[in-house]
């Protein structure tokens, strides 16, 4: 299992995160708006919200 950080909340971010989660990886979503990042992470199921600094 890998730990994958994705910056952005758009079409590519959602698609890549979905495939990474399906492959059994840990995925964190990073966006300029933390509330929107949480929305995407929740919608994906199993993703978490991260920060650029920590990544
Ligand atoms: N969609 C495709 O099929 C496709 C195919 C090949 C390549 N690409 C490329 O992949 C990239 C993303 O495409 P997309 O369709 O996912 O675009 P998108 O839906 O417009 O999403 C772009 C995301 O990037 C974020 N972003 C932009 N500048 C940022 C910055 N300086 N710091 C943090 N976040 C930033 C935006 O944040 P905000 O919401 O805060 O603005 C948004 O969440 C583009 O470069 C595109 O050309 C896309």
Main traits of this protein?
55 residues; 3 strands; alpha/beta; three-stranded parallel β-sheet; binds NADP nicotinamide-adenine-dinucleotide phosphate
Can you tell me about this structure?
There is one protein chain. The chain is an alpha/beta fold. It has a domain of 33 residues. Helix content is 42%, strand content 22%. The protein has a three-stranded parallel beta sheet with strand order 1-2-3, with helices on one face. Helix 1 links the parallel strand 1 and strand 2. The longest helix has 12 residues. It is globular. NADP nicotinamide-adenine-dinucleotide phosphate binds next to helix 1. The site of NADP nicotinamide-adenine-dinucleotide phosphate has 10 residues, from helix 1.
Tally of DSSP helical segments: 2
Number of DSSP strand runs:
3
| Spatial strand sequence of the major β-sheet | 1-2-3
Main β sheet profile: 3 strands, parallel
Which ligands are bound? NADP nicotinamide-adenine-dinucleotide phosphate
Runs with pLDDT <50, length 5+? none
Mean pLDDT: 96
Strand content: 15-25%
The ordered H/E elements are: EHEHE
- What is the distance, rounded to the nearest whole angstrom, between the alpha carbons of the first and last residues? 17 Å
Shape: globular
Helix % is 40-55%
Q: Specify Rg, calculated over alpha carbons.
A: 10 Å
Structural class: alpha/beta
């Amino acid at each position: 299992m890998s730990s994958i950080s994705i910056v952005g909340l758009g079409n590519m971010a959602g698609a890549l995160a979905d495939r990474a989660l399906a492959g059994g990886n840990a995925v964190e979503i990073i966006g300029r708006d933390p509330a929107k990042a949480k929305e995407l992470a929740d919608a994906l199921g199993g993703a978490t919200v991260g920060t650029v600094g920590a990544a």
